[in-house]
């Protein structure tokens, strides 16, 4: 009896402790800074002011940007879904010659994105890009600045945003019960009918979730509209960044950000609803593995092959351009020309030998590594608590951890600054600005929602009686967690660790406000190098940085996905 | 597989541990050296937006020869100001230079500066320093329009900013800034707006002034991110742009072309890069910072700096060291007379209005 | 050996177990039988320790285990889903509990091999990952894992429900054999009456959180204490008012109109056994016949109501639809509630 009390009281104390820490964390880092920034922007003079609303409403540019962001979101839902489904059908459903190589090409979006990706596209389609030069030779009357505005943004983003399709949809296709396809064939369905009536419906729940995410990325698009959007296709995210940078216009940034936030809440609601409806479970007990479908119709087969390879070229050319140009000097890069005399290894040698060149890498790798490890470790525990104790308290815990999704990164960064640029009792009077930890905290906060969702799903994906079984065999909670549960969620954990690591390596938006001036992360250096006043070699260095970044990301991805698909991984 | 998994974990943990250890030790060793050398060398953290194109490296080297160990943090003017204000309660910088008088005014109102009178004050024109000695002028930058001499001659080139607006011929041929965060870009804006001050107008500017700036942005080429305005200028794609005085030689050298300078009758905006000591709290010892400013602002150093990088020093004794190009700029262009207090009061609102209604 | 004393389990307002009192003897094969949601699994989980009762005590070997943590109770459990650890091999699964106890490597090996032999797992199977095994083999692993720690008690929660009929029958036999050999007190949860009747020494029939009847398989079948038990186990006819009154007239059997009367299908005969003086004859007409191989089930119309019985099949056609037959009911076979 005494033992029992001890154990239970210990348990209680431990839970209380965790509860207190979590409450403190949520209050200090998720609620207070965000409330603070909203308060200071809207109650600047102690009274609520409608002025920012009026300013925005009467601004044609702001209203147009809003509209454009919406249009972009909707367009992407359509274009990316079509492209994404086609890609996955090519790699996993149809028998396509060279599918393995095609898949590698389609995977390239996993290792590069943002500014680097868009500049890669510029090398092909921009006014001095390869394709443009070629076309101008053929059609001399053509405007070389054709790759600009809405079509250009949609084009770039359509191909850049298929990463999630490649990950999630191909898993969904692989889980199709092949017997359902055979049954449809047996009932006389044509390959097209099978595709539309049997295969696509199985993908629909995943497509719903992906569509929601797509809409969100369209709404929050930054790099593509900034570079290829031109004058006529501006969106809100760059505006938020501009206004956030100016102390007197932050109320506008906050207001625009709130708009994004509200859209995110709506999206979150749809995701949760879509998830509740649930993914179709295969009803059959004896599932057969899907077999690749040969397209019997010769014309159709040719067309599918053609499109598959055209897409491959679209995916691979920009990345090839980035890699090739990383071996050239500034002249080649700024003019877009290639010749042997401009090939050089100097930039690589400089990065590998010059401390000031490789330091940003080391700093970014340390920050990203720490962020990934901290956030995954913490969410592993928190998702576990949510999974184990399903009550009102844990539900509200889960919701509070979604706050970073509602507040754009820039605004959150500002919130952290204005809250912790002075001693605050909640942080033991430590001033965070000007310390190394500020950026780390922001990175961790930003990665919480996605990590939590994925890890929670991982915990829910296994049979809960496993835990009971382990306890029944005499294992304590900790032993059970380490020996039984952790190995099951480990593949997913490693995957999310890798994704988090990669995504934070070259971050700029959040970083620019928070980095320690003595330790410049890669994103800042890359961005500074694009500045017109930057030194001559800087632009060339950026390509070397980009290629090394891609290499690091590729290695990380390989570790998670490359070694056979035996492991169960919900990602 | 069975063996691999724990191995992988172990490797992962070792990696983390080593990274952590590396990070820590790196940090501590750096700090150690910093404190060790403090006694012999005078170390300072300097924030500046005016150290690009090798100026920072030169300064670090020169300062080291005089016994200063500098850690220079470089950022754009807007970012630098934001950063200084956000680090208010935990400042890392000892000295800041390069920001203009309006930015320094912001720093002053945020209680971020310590007053100090440098030895070389007497060598600067009277009244050019802040009257409470919070900041002092170093380098003057005139902001003026330039054009590609391969495309235009002195006759065909625009004579004033208003030409760009009125003359259809220049439509799409001149660069307009896409970002109004920096000092140079902003001075183009206020240089035009200040011709239309009207107490009854919106934000102190007459309707005509707003119309003009609207046309200016509509007809200009807004250089997108990732494109280089100077490259466009050199290639003739967008043959009219603007720059600050000490930026000109670098542009001409880098892109190998000759630029013509436009000098409107009203004159050109000018900004003066200032220097000041950051307020780090009560127990602050500003001796090293003061010594550095005395050294940096001296006729000798400013002269060398001007010689090396083609700037126009405020220090009257250093002016003669300025390059011919700078002297020429000083002669060609006249200073536009403007009420800078008025500008400082309104510039943020103007920029916001332009961002919202004109862009 | 195991005593449930006034056990009550509540989930919020819902009472899952109401005043449960049970005694399970040492070495006994004891089954909790009932439909889903009747409280049998809840009771089992209370015994193992996953659920703490809101009231009452669980006493094992004279020791009050009510609040003892699960891992200290030393009760082996086999889960409905087997709950085999998917990341481990068969060997690791079986050895799990032994490792937790920090046994020596050689001892663990010895014990695992010993147990593997008992449940018929080969050496090759031991090094396989559990997901590579068939359902029946996984079941054996689950049992082996529960037995590895040599528990005093083993509990099985619907262990055969995921297997096909034939395998179920085979494993049922093996399970019984195993239990007899090992002599472990076994608590078995099932909703399958056949399993309960064939395996158990005694059965507790659960309904709505209450134990309706505890007894040997024969007792609960032949002398079902409650109407629910009678209906749940085997097939029983409801005897209509008309028929029971007819029987009452012919035999002086006392009939209480408030009560309900039942008779099991196999107790209705079409021929009178020799020396049977008590059976009542009823005129009936064959309505339908279902052929089951070894027997057939017939449905008759009797006095405007229906009765069913089963007849052994010997290869000869006995009755056809529409045939008139005489049915015999012995009043002592009638169950009343």
Task: Set out the fold topology.
The complex is a heterotrimer of chains A (571), B (359) and C (337).
Chain A: H1 2-42, H2 51-57, H3 60-93, H4 99-106, H5 114-125, H6 130-138, H7 150-160, H8 163-174, H9 178-186, H10 191-219, H11 223-228, H12 236-245, H13 250-277, H14 298-325, H15 330-335, H16 346-353, H17 355-388, H18 392-400, H19 403-406, H20 409-420, H21 437-460, H22 465-472, H23 477-504, H24 511-514, H25 522-529, H26 538-562
Helix pairs in contact in A: 1-13, 1-20, 3-4, 3-7, 3-8, 3-10, 4-14, 5-14, 8-10, 9-10, 10-13, 12-13, 16-17, 17-21, 17-23, 21-23, 22-23, 23-26, 25-26
Chain B: H1 4-40, E1 42-48, H2 55-65, E2 68-74, H3 77-86, E3 95-97, H4 101-109, E4 113-114, E5 136-148, H5 161-166, E6 175-176, H6 183-193, E7 197-202, H7 207-219, E8 221-222, H8 229-235, E9 240-244, H9 248-255, E10 259-262, E11 270-278, H10 287-296, H11 299-309, E12 312-313, H12 324-332, H13 340-358
Chain C: E1 2-11, E2 14-24, E3 29-33, H1 40-48, E4 55-60, E5 63-64, E6 75-78, H2 90-100, H3 105-118, H4 123-126, H5 135-147, E7 153-157, H6 165-182, E8 185-190, H7 193-199, E9 202-207, E10 210-215, H8 217-222, H9 227-232, E11 236-238, H10 241-251, E12 261-264, E13 280-291, E14 295-302, E15 305-312, E16 324-329, E17 335-336
Parallel strand pairs in C: 3-8, 3-9, 6-7, 7-8
Antiparallel strand pairs in C: 1-2, 1-4, 4-5, 9-10, 11-12, 12-17, 13-14, 13-16, 14-15
Helix pairs in contact in C: 2-3, 2-5, 3-5
């Amino acid at each position: 009896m005494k033992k029992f009390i001890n154990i239970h009281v210990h348990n209680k104390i431990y839970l209380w402790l965790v509860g207190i820490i979590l409450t403190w964390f949520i209050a200090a880092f998720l609620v207070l800074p965000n409330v603070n920034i909203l308060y200071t922007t809207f109650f600047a003079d102690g009274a609520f002011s409608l002025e920012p609303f009026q300013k925005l409403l009467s601004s044609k540019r702001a209203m147009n940007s809003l509209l454009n962001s919406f249009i972009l979101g909707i367009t992407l839902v359509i274009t990316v879904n079509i492209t994404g489904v086609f890609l996955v059908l090519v790699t996993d459903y149809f028998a396509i010659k060279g599918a393995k190589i095609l898949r590698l090409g389609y995977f390239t979006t996993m290792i590069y994105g943002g500014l680097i990706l868009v500049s890669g596209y510029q090398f092909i389609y921009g006014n001095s890009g390869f394709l443009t030069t070629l076309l101008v030779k053929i059609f001399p009357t053509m405007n070389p600045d054709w790759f600009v505005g809405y079509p250009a943004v949609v084009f770039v983003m359509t191909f850049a945003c298929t990463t999630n399709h490649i990950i999630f949809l191909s898993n969904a296709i692989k889980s199709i019960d092949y017997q359902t396809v055979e049954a449809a064939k047996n009932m006389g369905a044509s390959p097209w009918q099978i595709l539309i009536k049997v295969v696509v419906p199985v993908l629909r729940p995943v497509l719903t979730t992906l569509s929601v995410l797509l809409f969100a990325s369209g709404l929050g698009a930054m790099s593509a509209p900034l570079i290829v959007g031109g004058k006529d296709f501006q969106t809100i995210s760059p505006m938020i960044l501009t206004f956030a940078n100016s102390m007197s216009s932050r109320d506008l940034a906050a207001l625009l950000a709130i708009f994004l936030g509200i859209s995110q809440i709506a999206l979150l609601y749809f995701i949760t609803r879509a998830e509740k409806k649930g993914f179709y479970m295969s009803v059959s007990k004896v599932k057969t593995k899907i077999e690749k479908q040969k397209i019997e119709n010769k014309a159709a087969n040719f067309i599918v092959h053609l499109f598959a390879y055209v897409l491959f070229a679209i995916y691979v050319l920009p990345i090839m351009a980035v890699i090739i140009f990383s071996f050239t000097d500034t002249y080649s890069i700024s003019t877009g020309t290639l010749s042997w005399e401009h090939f050089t290894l100097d930039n690589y040698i400089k990065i590998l030998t010059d401390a000031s060149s490789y330091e940003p890498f080391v700093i970014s790798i340390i920050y990203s590594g720490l962020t990934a490890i901290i956030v995954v470790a913490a969410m592993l525990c928190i998702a576990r608590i949510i999974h184990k104790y399903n009550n009102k308290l844990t539900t509200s815990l889960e919701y509070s951890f979604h706050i970073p999704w509602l507040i754009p990164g820039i605004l959150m960064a500002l919130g952290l600054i204005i809250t912790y640029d002075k001693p605050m009792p909640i942080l033991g009077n430590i001033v965070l600005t000007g310390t190394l930890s500020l950026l780390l905290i922001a990175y961790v906060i930003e990665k919480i929602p996605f990590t939590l969702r994925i890890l929670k799903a991982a915990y829910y994906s296994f049979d809960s009686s496993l835990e009971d079984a382990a306890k029944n065999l005499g294992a304590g909670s900790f032993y059970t967690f380490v020996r039984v549960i952790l190995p099951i969620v480990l593949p997913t954990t490693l995957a999310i660790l890798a994704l988090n690591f990669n995504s934070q390596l070259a971050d700029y938006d959040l970083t620019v406000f928070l980095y320690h001036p003595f330790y410049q992360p890669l994103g800042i250096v890359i961005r500074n190098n694009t500045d017109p006043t930057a030194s001559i070699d800087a632009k060339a260095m950026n390509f070397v940085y980009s290629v090394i970044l891609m290499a690091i990301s590729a290695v990380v991805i390989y570790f998670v996905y490359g070694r056979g698909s035996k492991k169960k991984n919900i990602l | 597989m069975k063996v691999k998994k724990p191995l992988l974990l172990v490797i992962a943990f070792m990696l983390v541990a080593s990274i952590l250890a590396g990070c820590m030790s790196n940090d501590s060793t750096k700090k150690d050296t910093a404190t060790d050398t403090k006694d012999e060398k005078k170390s300072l953290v300097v924030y500046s937006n005016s150290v690009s194109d090798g100026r920072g490296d030169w300064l670090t080297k020169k300062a080291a020869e005089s016994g200063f160990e500098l850690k220079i943090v470089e950022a754009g003017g807007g970012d630098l100001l934001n950063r200084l204000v956000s680090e208010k309660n935990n400042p890392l910088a000892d000295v800041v230079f390069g920001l203009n008088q309006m930015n320094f005014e912001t720093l002053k109102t945020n209680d971020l500066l310590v007053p100090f009178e440098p030895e070389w004050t007497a060598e600067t024109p009277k009244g050019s320093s802040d009257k409470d000695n919070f900041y002092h002028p170093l380098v003057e930058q005139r902001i003026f329009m330039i054009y590609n001499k391969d495309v235009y001659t002195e006759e065909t080139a625009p004579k004033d900013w208003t030409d760009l607006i009125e003359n259809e011929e220049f439509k799409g041929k001149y660069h307009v800034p896409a970002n109004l965060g920096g000092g140079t870009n902003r001075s183009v804006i206020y240089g035009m707006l200040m011709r239309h001050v009207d107490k009854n107008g919106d934000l102190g500017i007459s309707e005509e002034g707003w119309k003009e700036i609207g046309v200016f942005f509509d007809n200009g080429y807004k250089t997108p991110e990732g494109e280089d305005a100077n490259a466009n200028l050199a290639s003739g794609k967008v043959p009219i742009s603007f720059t600050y005085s000490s930026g000109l030689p670098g542009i001409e050298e880098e892109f190998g072309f000759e630029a013509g300078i436009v000098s409107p009758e009203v004159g050109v905006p000018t900004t003066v890069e200032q220097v000041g000591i950051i307020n780090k709290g009560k127990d602050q010892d500003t001796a090293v910072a003061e010594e550095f400013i005395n050294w940096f602002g001296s006729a000798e150093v400013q002269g060398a700096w001007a010689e090396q990088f083609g700037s126009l020093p405020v220090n009257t004794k250093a002016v003669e060291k300025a390059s011919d190009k700078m002297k020429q700029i000083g002669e060609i262009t006249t200073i536009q007379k403007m009420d800078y207090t008025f500008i400082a009061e309104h510039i943020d609102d103007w920029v916001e209005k332009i961002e919202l209604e004109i862009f | 050996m195991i005593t449930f004393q006034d056990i009550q389990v509540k989930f919020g307002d819902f009472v899952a177990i109401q005043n449960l009192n049970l005694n399970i003897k040492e070495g006994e094969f004891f089954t909790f039988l009932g439909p889903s949601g009747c409280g049998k699994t809840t009771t089992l989980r209370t015994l193992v320790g996953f659920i703490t009762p809101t009231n009452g005590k669980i006493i094992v070997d004279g020791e009050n285990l009510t609040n003892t943590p699960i891992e200290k109770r030393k009760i082996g459990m086999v889960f409905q889903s087997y709950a085999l650890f998917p990341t481990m091999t068969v060997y690791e699964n079986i050895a799990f509990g032994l490792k937790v106890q920090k046994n020596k490597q050689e001892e663990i090996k010895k014990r695992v091999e010993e147990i593997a032999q008992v449940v018929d797992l080969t050496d090759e199977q031991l090094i396989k990952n559990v997901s590579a095994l068939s359902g029946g083999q996984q079941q054996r692993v689950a049992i082996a894992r529960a037995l590895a720690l040599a528990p005093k008690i083993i509990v099985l929660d619907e262990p055969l429900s995921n297997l096909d009929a034939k395998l179920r029958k085979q494993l049922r036999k093996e399970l019984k054999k195993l239990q007899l050999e090992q002599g472990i007190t076994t608590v078995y949860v099932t909703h399958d009456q056949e399993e309960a009747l064939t395996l158990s020494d005694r059965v507790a029939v659960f309904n709505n959180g209450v134990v309706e009847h505890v007894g040997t398989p024969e007792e609960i079948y032949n002398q079902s204490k409650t109407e629910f038990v009678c209906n749940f186990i085997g097939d029983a006819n409801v005897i209509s008012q008309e028929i029971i009154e007819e029987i009452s007239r012919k035999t002086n059997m006392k009939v209480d109109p408030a009560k309900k009367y039942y008779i099991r299908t196999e107790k209705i005969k079409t021929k009178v056994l020799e020396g049977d003086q008590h059976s009542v004859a009823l005129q009936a007409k064959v309505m339908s016949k279902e052929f089951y191989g070894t027997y057939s089930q017939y449905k008759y119309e009797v006095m405007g109501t229906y009765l069913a019985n089963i007849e052994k099949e010997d290869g000869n056609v006995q009755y056809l639809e529409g045939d008139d037959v005489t049915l015999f009911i012995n009043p002592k076979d009638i169950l009343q509630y």
